[in-house]
Amino acid sequence: MLKLKRNPVTVLRILFGFVWLIDAFFKGQPGFRAGFAASIQGVQSGQPGFIRTWIGVWASLATHTGQLLPDIIAITETALALALILGIVRRPVYVVGAVYALFVWAVGEGFGGPYVLGTTTDVGTGIIYAFVFASLFAMDTFAVAQVSLQRIFIPTEGQARLSRTTRTVASPVAASQLSDSAV
To answer: pTM score, two decimals?
Structure first.
């Protein structure tokens, strides 16, 4: 029987999943989709040259692909949210989530800029999300019992070894047939 302990890592993972689910909901709204290219172009203003060029490439791509990029973003964030909440393929999700968050930070948030004297800057949320994903990845190594569908449906090494042992034990009927035929 599976014992479920309330693990702080599990609670953090599920709460973080709900944050992503709320974010994904807003990314699926028509307003986000309609203004996506303009918001990427707006990130360009006030940036240093090399960052402005980087964001310009993505702004051009967003302009020429129509609704494709906003749809990919909404689907990606929904998938991350559901995977975090359900606890499936945790470690790969943490890696993909960190890379995605860094991508959002680099493109959608302009690396947290503009970095110009006299303006207030914020590092942005993408980098912080990447750190949360990295922390979840590190803490997942030390977590003992987590509530997740993966833990229920995919047996651990100990559970697999136990099931192999119980399958190889002969039934009493088979054992008596072996002893009779051996005589």
So the answer is: 0.72
